[in-house]
Every structure is written in C-alpha cells, then in structure tokens.
Design a protein that fits this description.
The protein is 24% helix and 32% strand. By secondary structure, it is an alpha+beta fold. Helix 1 packs across helix 2 (44-57). The protein starts with a strand and ends in a 15-residue tail after the last strand.
Length: 200
Amino acid sequence: MTPVHLFGPRLALREVEPEDTDALLAIYGDPEATRHLSFEPRTPEQVQAIVDRSIASAADSPRTEYCLAITRLGEHQLIGYARLATEPQQAATIGFALHPAEWGKGLGTETVQLLCALGFQTVGLHRIWAARSPLNEASARTLLRAGMTEDGRIRDHVFVRGAWRDSITYSILEHEWTPIDGLDGGPAPGVQGTADSQGT
C-alpha cells in the first residue's frame, strides 16, 4: 500500500506516526478544540488508541479508512487530524480537527479540499459528505468555501456531553469538485473499500 502524501499551497496530509501522540493529545484532549466535536475531550490512553488504530488502518486491504496527520507544508509537526471513511455506493464521510492556535487562517478549507482530492482523485468516490454541530458556524463557512452544499439536518444524531445533538450535513459530488491550485501527491490510484463510519 502506497502511503498517502498529499499537499496543497500551505498544508500537507501524511500518514499518522507513533510520534504524533502528544501533538494529537494537545487537540483531542483540549476542551476548546473538541467543543463542537461529537465526543468529549479524550484521555491520553484514548488518544494512544486512536493513533494505534490510525496506523493499523493504513495497512488494511482494501483500505476503508484514511486517518491522516495535517501538517504545514514542508514541516512534520502534526497541527491537526483528518479522516476519510468510505461507505457503500462510492461515498465517504470526512472530518477533521485543528489545534485552536491554527483556527481562523483558512486552513480548514484547505484541509477539506485535500480530503476531497484524496476521495475523488485517488479513491474514486462519487460523493463526499460531512456533518457539523449546529452551533459551529465557523465549520459551516469552511465547508461552504470548500465547495460543499448544505443538505439538511439529522435530528439527535450524536449523544455527547449528556444530551442528544443534531448535525447539519453537507456534501459534494465528483462533478461539482474543482481541484485547488498547487495540489500534488497521493497514494496509488484505485484504492477503495466500504465501511460504515462516523466523523472524527
């Protein structure tokens, strides 16, 4: 299996490595960073399990899950975590989280565009979708800027912090997607599988 290495104008996506655990804990263990996600802050043990699972999934054949480190272009330090999980009918769900220090810089939009490049150009998908918390307006702007369309609301989609929460969903189809300038890299074409999955 050829490792994923995608890069855009400012960011790169690479495979997760054991050394990424502390940097991921700084995101997934942070109450602010996880405020709008579908889970509460993770413990060090839980983050270690996520890293282990991410590394193991890269070796699956067929590969159904791409759990990737987000880095600045030309750097190795993890500043975010991105995930694409394939589903039946040439579809996939995507999700990502960036360290709060990286918010407000347009990096989320580029992350979504890179995940779309992975899904459409490499995996051969027809549809990619994402879900956000109704209160996460920054995520709404990010997904729309990346070219996605708001589809609707899933009522009581996730149970988090002791209550059910709706999700607002977005999608983009293969023919609607336009590659961003400066995009390059990726694994060998034709890698595809199926899985039932939720976002990060």
